[in-house]
Amino acid sequence: MAQVITSYCKIKDQQVLLNGELVLAAPSGNADIHHFLRYTYEQLGCEYPRFFKMDALSKLCFCAAETMIPQSGIVNRTDAGDIALLFSNRQSSILSDKAHQETINDPWNFFPNPAVFVYTLPNIMVGEMCIRHQLTGDTTFLLSEGFDADMHHRYLDCLMQQGAAQAVISGWVEADENGYEAFLYMVEDSMVSAGLLPHTPGSLTALYHNSKILTYGNVD
Amino acid sequence: METLIETLKLQIIDELNLDHLDPAGIDPDAPLFNEGMGLDSIDALALVMLLEKYYGIKAPKGESMKPAFASLRTLATYIQEHQAVPAEG
Prior knowledge:
A: alpha+beta; Peroxisomal Thiolase, Chain A, domain 1; 8 helices; B: mainly alpha; globular; 3-oxoacyl-ACP synthase (chain A); PP-bd_ACP (chain B)
């Protein structure tokens, strides 16, 4: 089975790119992550009130998935139970963790808010994506210092080679007080869908670090 | 009562992360859950915490809050009936 990267989406610095093409750029000025993600949600034309309840990490992943998954048509050619999800980041759900901590710091003002603490796990982000796109395959969330293309490649390859998944939606989604970054991509069997690039660590590294369009021939 | 309902709208929007809702567009007699404001089970827990945080009301063990959580108006009524009255003198 030849695995190919069939689509990818990047969100960073107030821009959303799909397969290397700029989808939208927020007006310069307010760089607040919540402001940007709400703007992106509205620009994407979504009608999903649950979005507003999500934490920033889940909203960020939602916007990337909403940009990439529907246009890819992956759910039309692969059973929902055969699409696995493999994600990672460096700081887990740090923004929600801190927000929750603030609600319980003071024993005299101790009011943990369920609307906040339900998001104090990064795999909730993956769950939100599953709910939105009705995906029921294996889900995995890993922590690493940075986007680890080798680890992602090995893990994903294992999922597909062992038959645990026919396709995988994968990526790196990180958000903290200093910034945010989402890099989502999907890998499928080349017999099922034409790919942009072969699924190799080199391809993943190149896509993660570059914004320009990359195709077969200019990536190792 | 109407002032309390308007206050509740703002507190619920803030505590339950519903900032896409316009307070003026919320019907105080519409169901809070499913239809209406579209709240879910997590929101029910958040409402319980809201009652304690802002009104000092602890949800009684073993007693359903379902009647109180029917709408904003029933919630406001519940608060008025259960809020602690400061001791005189």
